[in-house]
Amino acid sequence: MLKFPMSKQAGFTLVELVTTIILISILAVVVLPRLFTQSSYSAYSLRNEFIGELRQVQQKALNNTDRCFRVAVSNTGYQVSQFSTRTDTVCTGTALSPNPLYSQAFQGGAQLVLVSTNSTNFTLDFDSLGRLFPTCNGSCIRVTANDTVLINVSSEGYIYAN
Predict the structure, then answer these.
(1) Which of these, 49, 34, 35, lies nearest to 106 by C-alpha position?
(2) Bond into 134 cis (ω within 30)
(3) Of 1, 21, 54, 102, which shows the fewest CB atoms inside 10 Å?
(4) Does the record bear Transmembrane in its keywords (predicted)?
(5) What digits encode the pLDDT tens for the residues 89-104?
(6) What kind of fold does domain 41-161 have according to CATH?
(7) Are 161 and 51 a contacting pair, CB within 8 Å?
């Protein structure tokens, strides 16, 4: 009778293999697309961020009727500045500070477009009642990244997502 030496079995159990496959599939579905492409989530997050910024500037304009607050949008980003005076609807005079109160750069080719003029370079001022100038009612600003979403402004000045 032949005797074979006992060798240690090496390998993975079925539970270990299934767990590894599940973890790799979760990573492939959730994490990897975000690493290799820009998600359309960026358009939604930029829209929400810009709505928040507009509402904050609107509140500053309502609370400081002797000053004017402006949001200036360009191809590369936007900034908020404070001016010494205003007419009924437009900021006039000189900026109170050479540096903007807030500045934000766009990333990944995102941009904001004023729908009425189809321009990526524009300024937004608020009158003492919180209404936006240039006057807008409905879809006013288009946010473009991998997806396109809109920012609406009512004639009374309410800013909301579409």
Answers:
(1) 49
(2) yes
(3) 1
(4) yes
(5) 677 777 776 677 888 8
(6) minor pseudopilin epsh fold (3.55.40)
(7) yes
